[in-house]
C-alpha cells in the first residue's frame, strides 16, 4: 500500500482522533503532567481501555446497518433517545466554546494584533462556519488527514528532543490525591479521555457520511459481483482498522502531552494559567523550550492547526446530530438534510461564542464542567451502545460475543463504579 492509498484509508477514525486531541489531550493531559507528574499515566491508559468497546460500537454499528447510533437509540425507545438528545443540547455550546477558546488563544499568540479573546474566538468560529458550510464532511475529512499528519510529526520530534536537551531538575513535590481539587480534576480527566462516549454518535454519523460519499464506487460493476455478506464483512473490517488507527493515535498522544507537562512544569514552581491566551502561550513554550526559539512561528501555527481541526470536528459532529434530530422530530425530507445542516452550524458557533463571552477568563471551569458531565453520563451511553449491537437489525453473526462481550460488560461495570463513587463523594 503506497502513502496516498494509506491516506485514503484514513477517514472517520482520524476525525475522531482530531476531536479528542483538542482539549482532552492538549489541555487536560498537559495539566495532568504539570500537576501530578507521571503518576496519572495509568489513569489515562485505563480510561482509554475502559471506553474502547463503546467507541468501537459507533464505527461498527454504522458499518453494519448503514444507520447512526442516534437511530439505534431511537430504536431503543423514547427514554434512550431523549437522554441522547438532552445531553447533546446541554453540552454542545459549552464544548464548542471550550475547543474554540483554546484555538483562539493560540491564534492570539501568532498574530500581532491586540484583540480580546472574544474577538479571536469570533474569528475562529466565522472561519469554521465558512469551511463547513462550503465543504461539509468531505472537506473536513481531507483537511484533518493532513492536519493530524503534520501535527504528529511536530509532536514526535519534540518528544524525542525532550530527552536530549538539558532541563532544570524538578523540585520535590508532594501530591495529595485525596483533596477535592485533585479528585475533581481526575474525574474531569477521565470524563474526556480520550473524549466523551457520546462522541461515538458523531463517529457513527461520519462513517455513514463517508459511505454515502463512496456509494458510487461501491456500486461499480467490478465490485457488485461479490457476495453481499463478504462485502459487508470487508467494509466492517476496513472501518475497524480505521477506528483502531485513530484510537491508538489518541492513546499515544495523550501520554505524550502528559510527559510534556511533567517534564516542563511539574516541580518547576510554575502553574498553568486559566486564561486561554496565557495557557496557549505556555503550550507554545513547551515546544520552543525543547526545539529552540527559532521554532516559535512554526510551532504556533502547527498547534493552531491541531486545535482548529478539533473546532471543525466538534462543529460538524454536533451539527450532524442536531440535523438528524430535526429530521426525526419534524419529519423533514432527505432533500432538506444539507440545508438543515448548513443552518445549524452558525447556531452552534453563535451559542459557543456567547458562552465564551460570559466565561472567557474561566477556561478550567468551562472544561471541567463539560468533562464532568461526560464522566457522569458515560455509563448511560455505554449501556445504550452495547444494547445497540443486540438490536434486530444487527445480524447475529456480527454481534458482540465471547470474551470481548465479557470485557465490554466489565468495562461498563467499571464506568458505573467510577460514576457512583463520584456522585457519592460529591454529595456526601
From TrEMBL:
Transmembrane segments: 6-27, 39-64, 79-107, 119-140, 146-165, 177-197, 245-266, 298-318, 339-360, 366-386, 406-427
Topology within the bilayer: Multi-pass membrane protein
InterPro entries: NRAMP_fam (IPR001046)
Residues of the signal peptide: none
Alphabetically ordered keywords of this record: Membrane, Transmembrane, Transmembrane helix
Compartmental location: Membrane
Superkingdom of origin: Bacteria
Name listed for the protein in its UniProt record: Divalent metal cation transporter
Source organism of the structure: Alteromonas ponticola
